[in-house]
């Protein structure tokens, strides 16, 4: 999707109450970057476009209405959400979910099989006393939404076939956010403003895994100069994307690791700084002093607020770091964790706005459903449960070029990562 500097429009927002119906506008002004990526995105793999549809605000009421189906059967309880705007259609899947929960004689909703299985023996006496439905429209025309009812969170998508439930985190139960583990390739392009962000070198290369049910995951960094076998023979990993695009990076790393990837995310300098600007800057706690090694200011140890430009420089510096490229890759993982903390500082009903911002600043081959559920996982476990490592390797040369050779023990990391968790050191 096209990168833009424009701030996102506010989302559609429906206030659910049991006893009253009032329309009140709301504006989610605090938005955040995808905490699961150093410079990542969301959206669908469509042709770039800058066309967007501003969302509107709506209010709804929820009631539980008993209805007698036969003269002898007990009343059939149903839930009816009356939406004035944007449409009753967005509430229908939520109505179906809660109608089924309050009375299992109702038909179960159209929802992921894992969610239906999880809730098969669950029940509710009512759908909750209050809640919010928030929606946003992406530039590719897909719509996304969250319904927050008491402590329940329901994720919704309309990608042209009507609104449906694609995930949920119901109170007291593990979140259901797609088939686990979620495994994606995160690529930060070396493209400057005005350059093609998908066709230049990849200076940030990470595997991100998330296991929502376990409340954990991993960030595994590749030193950018890792020597790999590409389609045309040996080359530095960073050079693979230049002129070819992110697909060749995904193909090569899939072949190397034999991991089952969902897809990739990619962005460049402009997309990264736009995302950090949407956060209002980046709050990060650095474990040690980070020396830039050039004319940029150094970074002290401890907590600090970084401007978008300072955050980008932190992601790029390596000459002043003892471990060079290895430390840079590790720092990029720290930025992901810090962004995740900032995500959790805003309510989850901001998620549709978050996804909108990301879709305007990055590219992915994941579907809208996959992106929404992956982004939602940032809200359900602490950032320290996202273990941050860099693959073991050593520095060497090929001809006159300085390169990095991944160690044989990197294979152990790949195999350990098959379940999405780095547990080898704990066994």
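^ structure tokens above, recovered residues below v
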């Amino acid at each position: 999707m096209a990168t833009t500097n424009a701030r996102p429009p506010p989302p559609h927002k429906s206030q659910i109450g049991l006893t009253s119906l009032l329309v009140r506008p709301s504006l989610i002004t605090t938005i955040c970057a995808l905490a699961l990526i150093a410079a990542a995105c969301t959206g669908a793999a469509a042709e770039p476009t800058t066309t967007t549809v501003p969302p509107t605000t709506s209010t709804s009421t929820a009631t539980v209405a008993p209805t007698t189906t036969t003269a002898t059967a007990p009343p059939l309880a149903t839930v009816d959400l009356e939406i004035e705007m944007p449409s009753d259609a967005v509430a229908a899947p939520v109505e179906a979910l809660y109608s089924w929960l309050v009375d299992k004689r109702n038909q179960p909703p159209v929802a992921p099989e894992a969610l239906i299985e999880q809730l098969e023996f669950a029940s509710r006496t009512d759908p909750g006393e209050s809640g919010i439905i928030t929606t946003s429209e992406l530039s590719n025309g897909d719509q996304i939404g969250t319904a927050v009812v008491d402590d329940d969170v329901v994720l919704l998508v309309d990608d042209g076939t009507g609104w449906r439930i694609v995930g949920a985190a119901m109170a007291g139960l593990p979140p259901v956010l797609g088939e686990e583990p979620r495994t994606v390739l995160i690529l930060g392009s070396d493209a400057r403003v005005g350059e093609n962000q998908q066709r230049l070198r990849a200076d940030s290369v990470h595997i991100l895994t998330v296991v929502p049910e376990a409340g954990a995951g991993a960030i595994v960094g590749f030193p950018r100069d890792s020597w790999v076998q590409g389609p045309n023979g040996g080359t530095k990993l960073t050079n693979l994307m230049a002129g070819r695009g992110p697909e060749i990076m995904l193909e090569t790393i899939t072949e190397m690791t034999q991991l089952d990837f969902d897809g990739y995310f990619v962005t460049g300098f402009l997309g990264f700084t736009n995302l950090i600007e949407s956060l209002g800057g980046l709050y990060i706690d650095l474990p040690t002093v980070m020396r830039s090694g050039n004319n940029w200011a150094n970074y002290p140890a401890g907590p600090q607020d970084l401007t978008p430009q300072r955050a980008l420089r932190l992601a790029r510096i390596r000459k002043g770091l003892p471990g060079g490229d290895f430390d840079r890759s590790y720092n990029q993982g720290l930025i992901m964790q810090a962004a995740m903390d900032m995500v959790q500082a805003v309510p989850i009903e901001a998620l549709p706005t978050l996804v909108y911002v990301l879709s305007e600043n990055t590219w992915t081959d994941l579907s809208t459903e996959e992106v929404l559920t992956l982004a939602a996982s940032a809200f359900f476990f602490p950032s320290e449960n996202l273990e941050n490592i860099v693959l073991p390797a050593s520095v060497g040369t090929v001809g006159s070029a300085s390169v990095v050779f991944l160690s044989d023990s990197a294979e152990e990391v790949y195999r350990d990562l098959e379940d999405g968790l780095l547990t080898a050191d704990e066994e």
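The first strand starts at residue 12 and ends at 17.
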